[in-house]
Amino acid sequence: METIEKPWGKEEILVVMDQYVVKRLYMNPGKRCSKQYHKYKIETIYVLSGVLLIHFDNETRRLVRGEHITIMPVCNHRMECGSESETAIYLECSTSELDDVVRLEDDYGRE
Predict the structure, then answer these.
(1) Is 110 among the domain residues?
(2) What is the SS3 assignment for the chain?
(3) CATH number of the structural domain spanning residue 65
(4) Which of 48, 71, 83, 107 has its CA 20 to 30 A from that of 29?
(5) pLDDT of residue 71
(6) Per-residue pLDDT averaged across 47-57, rounded?
(7) CA-to-CA dists, residue 89 to 24, 40, 54, angstroms
């Protein structure tokens, strides 16, 4: 298992196959990832614990343990921890395009 530290928490890459990838992500309280979209990648988010907010252009979805959502290509989105005290832990099951990220905004100065 590969662990990648991120400014908002970390991700653990659990499985990489030709057609899919499974990651476990930890979004720390008060943190959020970049606003982004994917040209090709489809991802399903499944919350294991905590509260995860997913922001779209005109909507915010609040997900808790056992809830999930699928995000299709070219959909602008951003994940955020929905708790001030508890890390949001969730699975991301996606197609295999690991580098397919177009950042639109980023709190940490990443391109």
Answers:
(1) no
(2) CEEEEECCEEEEEEEECCCCEEEEEEECCCCECCEEECCCCCEEEEEEECEEEEECCCCEEEEECCCEEEECCCCCEEEEECCCCCCEEEEEEECCCCCCCEEEECCCCCC
(3) 2.60.120.10
(4) 71
(5) 97
(6) 97
(7) 7, 24, 13
